[in-house]
Amino acid sequence: MIDLKKLYEEKQAFGFFANQLSYPDKLHFHPSVLEESFDSSHLAYEYIKQYWALMHAYSFDEIQEMYTATFDFQKETTLFMTYVKYEDAKERGQMLAKLKVLYEMFGLDMPDHELSDFLPLMCEFIYAAEWIGDERAPQSFGMLLAVIEDGSYHLLKGLEKHNSPYTHLIKAMRETFKSCIRQEAKAND
């Protein structure tokens, strides 16, 4: 079960993930971006620090080249969260449609040029959406997080295989998600 209040408290982190997983922009690497998104008490802070330090060892042109080589030309490190599981099967189309409806339910229009399972878009949705008090939120966000969890697991494995700095970013995102999952108490028989 998702703790929607905790997820809401992590909105700033998901804004950071959305920016870092989008095609690089110099403004996304300004020191204030990290400072505004995380403090040292955040449970994913160590992963974020590793990612940030590794990325700042590259020139901006190298970061752009790395992004393209990593996410655009390697099937195993795609940012499309349903691709690895479904590829181009009918089920993927159905999941993309469900995600699009979810975004629209919470007042966000999907860009026409983007698929609804694009991880930066999904993180941006979590950052921008307002769901507190909406009775549709638990089921809707449960589906969203399940898609991200499944897809990001495969993404993480691919990034680890290629020893990518983005590995630490995805670990941070997954840790942040994990902190938003409520552990159900088991009933004693």
Description:
By secondary structure, this protein is mainly alpha-helical. It has one domain (4-178). The protein is built from ten helices and no strands. It has helices at 4-9, 11-21, 31-37, 45-55, 60-72, 83-86, 90-105, 119-128, 137-161, 166-178. α9 packs antiparallel against α10. The longest helix has 25 residues, at 137-161. The two termini are 21 Å apart. Mean pLDDT is 91; it is low at 185-189.
Average pLDDT confidence is 91
How far apart the termini lie comes to 21 Å
Structural class: mainly alpha
Per the principal axes of the C-alpha atoms, what is the gross shape? Answer: globular
Share in helix = 55-70%
Radius of gyration, whole Å: 17 Å
Question: What are the low-pLDDT stretches, counting only 5+ consecutive residues below 50?
Answer: 185-189
Got a strand count? 0
Instruction: Provide the succession of SSEs.
Output: HHHHHHHHHH
Q: What share of residues are in beta strands?
A: under 5%
- Main β sheet profile: none
Number of helices: 10
- The tally of domains stands at 1
